[in-house]
Amino acid sequence: MDNYKDWTYSPENFGNLPSVIADLHANKQRYIIMADPAISSSQPAGSYPPFDDGKRLDTFVKTENGDILVGKVWPGETAFPDFFHPNAYTYWYTQAKQFHDKLAFDGLWIDMNEPSSFIDGSATGCSKTSKYDNPPFTPGSILNFNLFGIPLIGADICGFRGQTTPEMCTRWHQLGAFYPFMRNHADIRSPAQDPASFQSPYVDNIRKALNLRYQLLAVLYTGFFNANTKGLPIVRPLFYIYPGTEAISNQFMWNDQLLISPVLTQGATTVNAFIPRDRFYDYYTLKPVNGEGHLVNLPAPLDTINVHIRGGSILPLLPTTTRTDDARLQAFTITAASSLNGTAQGELFWDDGESSNSIPSKTYSLIKFNLNKNTLTTKTAVTGYMPSSGIKAGKVYVLGVTQGPNKVLINGNSHQFVFDINNQKLEIPDLSVDLLKNNTITWQ
């Protein structure tokens, strides 16, 4: 950046940055920029459009007497766009679009997205005219934002300042794999803490956590679709689904499908987790777990975060690859976790992965899954995205099958299967089912 100012880059130090980005794109790599909502405010009028435009559109936060509130962040004195202002969208979009015309970035990371300032209140101090100027509480965890309607959120994995430890960083990556916005991010003066900076077994354990997230990316993507269209949070406290669990803050749900129980204590190899009174399945073994509504001591070796699939869920999972565009070409594994009454539902939102307007233009496909006793169906609710290769399912797991079937039929045709009586798991491998077509899988 040019003196830390948003929507700039230094022509002296990074004059060839557009060609660097072009080279990244030629190698199928992406370039994400970081911008702070704090806009530099101390330069002469007319010399910095991001501030001049905000002032003209009246989008900056004001003091009680109507002046622009001035704080201090990276560029020095700064103003803060008021995201409740009716002109805020026009203002922010215009700045991003004009900068994108100069520098073809692929994504925007809003850094310090809270109204963060290096001084208390403003350059003129803090007002004391109202009880709201000094609220008697501090907002809790960057995860509560899901309940506020802001789902793409996540803390700086391994911490922003100071020196982490290999164990803490491993455990934090396991937890961070379930942040909707996953980032390992540190102050420039901090020791290296990226996954590759650690030795085995820590780097291997972190890789395992990252692979877990890659497997679940389609579940997360579908969660964002529901957040966009229905306002549903992705990360949910347990009480969102199980009332009476308001005191539990060290576990959470992903959508209404996964129960996450991270290790938060140094040196721990077990976790004391609350398992609600419901049917669950261990994510790794797919073995059924009947929750009794009390705390259970679960094994949690250093390479594992406890994850349970909630009965009644159907998950579309992807194989692990090193690139998301490669993963999109792979066949899904459909994991149908039966509830206590033998039913389950799920869905898959899928588009080209690039377009920003696929929802309003309906250029996406929405596939609905339904399990009822011994029948699993897939139906297309929307078919606006139809790649030439189709959207394939290569394997199906049905969990909670108590009796071994004699045969399995895929759209009326017999197909091989494997049944594990001990884990009540029916596996249907070697499929080539196009999910853009309606399908019926039955077992007898």
From TrEMBL:
GO biological process: carbohydrate metabolic process
Gene3D superfamilies associated with the record: Glycosidases, Golgi alpha-mannosidase II
Origin: domain of life: Eukaryota
UniProt keywords, alphabetically: Glycosidase, Hydrolase
Domain Glycosyl hydrolase family 31 C-terminal: residue ranges: 231-315
Gene Ontology MF terms: hydrolase activity, hydrolyzing O-glycosyl compounds
UniProt key word Mitochondrion: no
Chain ranges of the Glycoside hydrolase family 31 TIM barrel domain: 1-132, 133-222
Family the entry assigns: Belongs to the glycosyl hydrolase 31 family.
Protein name: Lysosomal alpha-glucosidase-like
Provenance organism: Elysia marginata
